[in-house]
Amino acid sequence: MTRRFHRYCPALALIVMVSLAANPAVRLGAQNAPLHVDVKLVNVFVSVTDQKGAPVGGLTRDDFAIAEDDRPQKIAIFERESDMPLNLTLAVDTSSSVFKDLADEQRAARGFVKAVLRPQDQISLLGFATVVEELTKFTKKPDEIAHGIARLQGGGGTAFYDAIVLGSERLGRQKGRKVLVVVSDGDDTAKGSNYEQALEAALRNEVMIYSLIDVPIEQSAGRDLRGEHALITLAEDTGGKSFYLDTEGLKNSLMKVSEDLRTQYFIAYYPHNQKPGIDFHRIQITVPGAASDYNVGYRTGYYADGVDAPDGSFGWDLNVFPAIRPPAPSSTSTH
Fold it and tell me: Measuring CA to CA, which residue among 83, 149, 90 is closest to residue 121?
């Protein structure tokens, strides 16, 4: 028995060495946790602003501290400005409660696309009222996006949470940074998905939500404060931001989103010493040297399991969400 074991030792050692060489992530995990290997790289985009809301640039890896479920983690990747492709979905509430000044909002949306779109990026467009309509699939072509913007039409109720769920599922299949920009008052009248489902869909698909809050009449008795709060917390919990539309309408808010996306930090880590038996892991990121001076924004955590659909679809259950409509054929579309 002993001689046979020694005879196979060289072969066994070769197999182990080849396995480690083929999977560097395993080597990284093994260095940190000899008894439990985690190879999932957790990606987090971080916004840092001062007390006046101005972006803080020039920070380094050493300025940040990161923990998962209160257990310190080591930063594996750090970038000040990421060249990672940006996948952005612009979801516009076209219901009768908020849809106004159509020409100005279309002009602002076209300007935003030109400002934010780089060669490696792609944008899609959703319009939602009683139903959620995909006006433009993901594309790198500004003309196709402009054609979708021109097709925005108002009227009807508001499938707000359905738009968040479907937009997040759609973004979840893309590679790179995933951003959902929502223009709405947050008033959901479709009674399809709910707040908890919308937040979970965004977090599971690693989607950052930017909420552009449209208040039709500021002092109106019918103002939906609950919807506004939902827009704010969805943005905070996913690492995005919320902005109220001012007298300039959509233009200024979209430019603030563009500025924030250009000044984000990218941090990634391999989870080490994880708490067992937890489905949702909470992330904590701080700037210890200026804890009282800076506001740090990032997604609150991630789900340990995935939501990939086994058939390779986007995970849309049309029995639950029958309101989604694909983009109509157009002379400019190549899809």
Answer: 83
pLDDT of residue 39 exceeding 90: no
CA distance 319 to 329: 24
CATH number where 205 lies: 3.40.50.410
- Overall number of domains in the chain: 1
Position with higher pLDDT, 27 vs 251: 251
In a domain, 126, yes or no: yes
SS3 content of the chain, % helix, strand, coil (to 5): 35, 25, 40
In a domain, 297, yes or no: no
∠ CA 146-152-154, nearest 5°, is 160
CA 122 to CA 313: how far, in whole Å? Answer: 19
Contact call for residues 237 and 199 (beta carbons, < 8 A): yes
Measured distance CA(49)–CA(312) in Å, rounded: 39
- First-to-last alpha carbon distance for the chain, in angstroms, is 65
146 located within any domain: yes
Which of 63-72, 102-111, 237-246, 264-273 shows the lowest per-residue confidence on average (mean pLDDT)? 102-111
Residue 106 placed within a domain: yes
- Is 124 a residue whose pLDDT tops 90? yes
**What does the alpha-carbon distance between residue 187 and residue 32 come to, in Å, rounded to a whole number?**
47
- In DSSP terms, which residues pair with 285 in a beta bridge? 66
Ordered DSSP codes for 182-232: EEE-----S-SS-HHHHHHHHHHTT-EEEEEE--SSTT-TT--HHHHHHHH
Tell me how far apart the alpha carbons of residues 41 and 68 are, in angstroms, rounded to a whole number. Answer: 13
Radius of gyration of the chain (CA): 23
Token output for 16: 């182990």
Identify which of 46, 55, 58, 62 has the alpha carbon closest to the alpha carbon of residue 268: 46
Neighbours of 220 (CB within 10 A): 9
pTM: 0.77
Dist. CA 180–CA 90, nearest whole Å: 6
Q: Which domain holds residue 154?
A: 86-249
